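Subject: for your reference before the review

Hello V.,

The reviewers asked for a structural picture of the protein, and I figured it would be easier to keep everything in one thread rather than splitting it across files. Below is the amino acid sequence we used in the manuscript, unchanged from the supplementary table.
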Amino acid sequence: MNGYRFDWLAVLSGLPRQWLLSGLLTTLELSLLASLLATALAVALLALRLLPSRACAAIATAYISVFRNTPLAVQFLFWYFGVVSLLPALWRQWLTAPHHWQGLSFPSLEMLVGVWGLGLFSAAFLAEDLRAGMRAVARGQFEAGRSLGLGAWQTLRLVVLPQALANAWQPLIGQYLNLMKNSTLAMSIAVAELCYQANQIESYNFHAIEAFAVVSAAYLVLGLVLSALLQGLGRHAGGGRHVRH
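And here is what came back from the structure prediction:
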């Protein structure tokens, strides 16, 4: 490589190592919080589509269409530079000021927007996969739940949704992996995740190859671990049965 000499200690020691560890923790925090938000929103969108109201179904359909067909990077910029600027001045001051509670720091504005944007974006894809899994559940399952005296929400939660999850588990794993990988785009609003820190290392000592190689390896390990955990969760939830895919 034109005499290039790799120097791995330039990114695995001193300040660069601290930056990478901080970026790893930020990536994990962002991915976890966004996953929780996306899952809750996806279930809510699925419930809206199951309601007899056409208006509710139209709202869910419009939400999914908008978020699936606009780039995530644009959405991040819209929330951070557009919507935040429309908030009342006191709200903006509170969000940008540091807050601590029993030694814990409140997430920064950038992190909050990152979680919000990534969660809303990913929810649209999760909801579609859940709907596909739901369509594979026999209609008689819903009617059986209602005949047992269960309400519509109880039937969805206890009877239909577990089967829909089993049907859609493999695509859902892919969506959660995509969520983790899409967290890199949060660097566009200054969330100091792994890619942000790699850029910082490149500006600090010009070892971009080593920095991005380490970050790529970190994402690979994170993806493999997350995939294994979700696969194990699927087998455990299925009572040891093979989850369909």
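For the response letter, the relevant points are probably these. Strands lie at 100-101, 104-105. The two ends are 43 Å apart (CA to CA).

Happy to draft the paragraph if you're swamped.

O.
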